[in-house]
Amino acid sequence: MNEVLKETEININHFLPHRAPMLMVDVLKEITTTSVTSVFEINSSNVFVENNYFSEVGLIENAAQTCSCIVGQSFFLSKNGIDAKKDNVNVVGFISGIKKATVFMLPMVNQTIKTSATLVSRFDTDEYSICTMKCATYQDENLLLESEINLFIQEVK
């Protein structure tokens, strides 16, 4: 099943446990079981803004949150799809490794970035998921970040 969920805006809360001030994705523009595209507007109060620029750490966190949405679907959605959100799901996730991260430039406050990620590999058990993702972040036509990261995601029961 590689059905594309497309809407003008897909509520990120269906796919991530993060909330402000650590939420680094505003909306999803597209998501499948193997790819995702997110959008994020950088505001001056963001915890990763330094001297009016979104920091390298912020770019990597945005990439990780975007990537984790692919695996997050299986924790937050029932088999009936996007309209059937599971209630009371509590997950923990973290970057277990960064295989590659190249920062080409930093975006400024009030700019919007677009991040696209593709699933490279995934290993699921009854307790957790481990995955590898390739990711690229742009501000307009400017490439900001290319990365390949490993994520560990687990439902806490």
Structure overview:
13% of the residues lie in helices and 52% in strands. The strands form three sheets. A seven-stranded antiparallel sheet has the order 1-2-3-9-10-11-8, with helices on one face. The chain contains one helix and eleven strands. The protein is globular and about 45 Å long. It is mainly beta. The longest helix is centred in the middle third of the chain and has 21 residues, at 56-76. It has one domain: Thiol Ester Dehydrase, Chain A.
Can you lay out the helices and strands and say which pair or pack?
Elements: E1 5-11, E2 27-31, E3 35-41, E4 49-50, E5 53-54, H1 56-76, E6 77-78, E7 81-85, E8 91-103, E9 112-124, E10 128-139, E11 142-155
Antiparallel strand pairs: 1-2, 2-3, 3-9, 4-5, 6-7, 8-11, 9-10, 10-11
